[in-house]
């Protein structure tokens, strides 16, 4: 990842295969259940706390996903997006930024139309092989196993000292507990 020219203002995350492991679990009542990683939640919150906008753009809609995004306080949430590129263009217009200031994290072919035109394209370690061959960076983490946390740490390290961020976060956490 060449960080010399990066000015990331928005990180867009796909869901299935990025924030989840891509598996679909169904209860005996037919309800879809998804598994999310707490470490990813911390990464998403850290990005937002440091002024980097987070957007979730997913082709699918689900109650568990809506609940998770609500719990994380993510404003830019687009479930059921049929055209991810059009959705991202809508977001950058609202934020008054350019595509060069966007990082996109995706794992499958439906994500490539955004990944090809954004400033930084990222795929999980277990992304579809044709996607991995076309991105700027492949995470060490697999989907649902800390991809968002790894992405957050790597992007934030371009602008901040991570040790200071985590020291401050830990201090603020304990002070709020008192």
Secondary structure layout:
Layout: E1 10-13, E2 25-26, E3 32-33, H1 38-49, E4 53-57, H2 63-72, E5 76-78, H3 84-95, E6 102-105, H4 112-115, E7 120-123, H5 129-132, E8 137-138, H6 147-156, H7 162-177
Parallel strand pairs: 1-4, 1-6, 4-5, 6-7, 7-8
Antiparallel strand pairs: 2-3
Helix pairs in contact: 1-6
Summarize the structure.
With 178 residues, this protein is of the alpha/beta class.
Written account of the structure:
By secondary structure, the chain is of the alpha/beta class. 38% of the residues lie in helices and 15% in strands. It has helices at residues 38-49, 63-72, 84-95, 112-115, 129-132, 147-156, 162-177, and strands at 10-13, 25-26, 32-33, 53-57, 76-78, 102-105, 120-123, 137-138. The strands form two sheets. Strands 5-4-1-6-7-8 form a six-stranded parallel sheet. Strands 2-3 form a two-stranded antiparallel sheet. β2 and β3 form a beta hairpin. α1 runs parallel beside α6 (147-156). The termini are far apart. Mean pLDDT is 90; it is low at 174-178.
């Amino acid at each position: 990842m060449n960080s010399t020219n990066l000015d990331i203002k928005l990180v867009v995350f796909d869901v299935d295969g990025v924030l989840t492991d891509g598996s679909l679990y169904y209860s005996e009542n037919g309800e879809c259940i998804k598994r999310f990683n707490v470490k990813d939640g911390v990464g998403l919150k850290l990005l937002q706390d440091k002024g980097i906008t987070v957007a979730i753009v997913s082709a699918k809609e689900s109650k568990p996903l809506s609940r998770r995004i609500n719990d994380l306080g993510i404003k830019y949430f687009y479930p059921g997006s049929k055209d991810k590129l059009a959705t991202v263009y809508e977001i950058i217009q609202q934020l008054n930024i350019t595509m060069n200031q966007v990082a996109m994290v995706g794992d499958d072919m439906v994500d490539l139309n955004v990944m090809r035109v954004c400033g930084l394209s990222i795929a999980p370690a277990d992304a579809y092989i044709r996607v991995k061959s076309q991105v700027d960076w492949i995470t060490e983490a697999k989907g649902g196993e800390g991809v968002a946390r790894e992405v957050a740490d790597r992007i934030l390290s371009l602008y901040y000292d991570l040790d200071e961020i985590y020291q401050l976060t830990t201090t603020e956490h304990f002070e709020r507990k008192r």
